[in-house]
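User: Hi! I'm working on a homework problem where we have to compare a predicted structure to a textbook description. Could you give me the structure for the chain below?
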Amino acid sequence: MKHFYLIVSFLFITFASAQDSKANGEIDGFTLYPNPVTDGKVFINTAANAPKKILIFDVLGTQVLQTTIFGAELSLSDLDTGVYVLRVFEKDKVATRKLIVK
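Assistant: Happy to help. Predicted C-alpha coordinates:
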Protein backbone atom coordinates (compact mmCIF):
# COMPACT_ATOMS: atom_id res chain seq x y z
CA MET A 1 0.00 0.00 0.00
CA LYS A 2 2.90 2.35 0.77
CA HIS A 3 4.28 1.82 -2.73
CA PHE A 4 0.92 2.76 -4.19
CA TYR A 5 1.00 6.13 -2.39
CA LEU A 6 4.54 6.75 -3.60
CA ILE A 7 3.58 6.09 -7.21
CA VAL A 8 0.43 8.21 -7.01
CA SER A 9 2.37 11.09 -5.41
CA PHE A 10 5.09 10.95 -8.05
CA LEU A 11 2.54 10.87 -10.87
CA PHE A 12 0.69 13.83 -9.35
CA ILE A 13 3.88 15.89 -9.10
CA THR A 14 4.85 14.94 -12.65
CA PHE A 15 1.41 15.86 -14.01
CA ALA A 16 1.31 19.15 -12.11
CA SER A 17 4.78 20.09 -13.28
CA ALA A 18 3.88 19.28 -16.89
CA GLN A 19 0.94 21.65 -16.65
CA ASP A 20 3.17 24.41 -15.21
CA SER A 21 5.77 23.87 -17.93
CA LYS A 22 3.16 24.30 -20.63
CA ALA A 23 1.81 27.46 -19.05
CA ASN A 24 5.12 29.13 -18.25
CA GLY A 25 7.49 27.54 -20.76
CA GLU A 26 10.62 25.50 -20.26
CA ILE A 27 13.84 27.23 -19.19
CA ASP A 28 16.10 27.82 -22.20
CA GLY A 29 19.42 25.96 -22.12
CA PHE A 30 18.55 24.11 -18.89
CA THR A 31 21.15 21.51 -17.87
CA LEU A 32 21.46 19.56 -14.63
CA TYR A 33 24.57 17.53 -13.83
CA PRO A 34 25.73 15.23 -12.42
CA ASN A 35 22.62 13.17 -11.98
CA PRO A 36 22.83 10.91 -10.00
CA VAL A 37 24.57 13.12 -7.44
CA THR A 38 27.43 11.39 -5.64
CA ASP A 39 29.52 14.20 -4.11
CA GLY A 40 26.78 16.37 -2.58
CA LYS A 41 26.86 19.04 -5.31
CA VAL A 42 24.83 19.51 -8.45
CA PHE A 43 25.26 22.15 -11.15
CA ILE A 44 22.28 23.87 -12.77
CA ASN A 45 23.02 25.92 -15.87
CA THR A 46 20.66 27.97 -18.02
CA ALA A 47 21.05 30.23 -21.02
CA ALA A 48 20.02 33.34 -19.04
CA ASN A 49 22.15 32.46 -15.97
CA ALA A 50 19.74 34.48 -13.79
CA PRO A 51 19.02 33.78 -10.10
CA LYS A 52 17.10 30.52 -9.70
CA LYS A 53 14.57 29.55 -7.03
CA ILE A 54 15.03 25.86 -6.21
CA LEU A 55 12.42 23.56 -4.67
CA ILE A 56 13.14 19.90 -3.93
CA PHE A 57 10.43 17.39 -3.01
CA ASP A 58 10.73 13.80 -1.80
CA VAL A 59 8.70 11.02 -3.44
CA LEU A 60 5.82 11.65 -1.02
CA GLY A 61 5.54 15.24 -2.25
CA THR A 62 6.96 16.79 0.92
CA GLN A 63 9.15 19.80 0.29
CA VAL A 64 12.60 19.06 1.71
CA LEU A 65 14.57 22.06 0.40
CA GLN A 66 13.85 25.59 -0.75
CA THR A 67 16.63 27.97 -1.69
CA THR A 68 17.76 30.51 -4.26
CA ILE A 69 21.06 30.21 -6.10
CA PHE A 70 22.82 32.99 -7.98
CA GLY A 71 25.41 30.83 -9.74
CA ALA A 72 25.25 27.25 -10.95
CA GLU A 73 26.28 25.22 -7.88
CA LEU A 74 23.71 23.77 -5.48
CA SER A 75 24.81 21.91 -2.35
CA LEU A 76 22.75 18.82 -1.54
CA SER A 77 24.87 17.51 1.34
CA ASP A 78 21.89 17.73 3.73
CA LEU A 79 19.74 15.38 1.64
CA ASP A 80 19.56 11.66 2.34
CA THR A 81 20.14 9.09 -0.36
CA GLY A 82 17.03 8.75 -2.51
CA VAL A 83 14.93 9.98 -5.40
CA TYR A 84 13.63 13.55 -5.44
CA VAL A 85 11.77 15.94 -7.70
CA LEU A 86 13.68 19.15 -8.48
CA ARG A 87 11.80 22.29 -9.58
CA VAL A 88 13.75 25.26 -10.85
CA PHE A 89 12.13 28.67 -11.35
CA GLU A 90 13.96 31.29 -13.39
CA LYS A 91 12.13 34.50 -14.25
CA ASP A 92 8.74 33.34 -15.58
CA LYS A 93 9.85 29.84 -16.59
CA VAL A 94 9.99 26.49 -14.82
CA ALA A 95 11.88 23.22 -15.25
CA THR A 96 11.13 20.01 -13.37
CA ARG A 97 13.46 17.01 -13.26
CA LYS A 98 13.93 13.79 -11.34
CA LEU A 99 17.00 14.02 -9.09
CA ILE A 100 18.81 10.99 -7.69
CA VAL A 101 21.11 11.35 -4.67
CA LYS A 102 23.47 8.44 -3.98
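For your comparison, note the following. The mean pLDDT is 86. Residues 10 and 59 are 6 Å apart (CA to CA). Good luck with the assignment!
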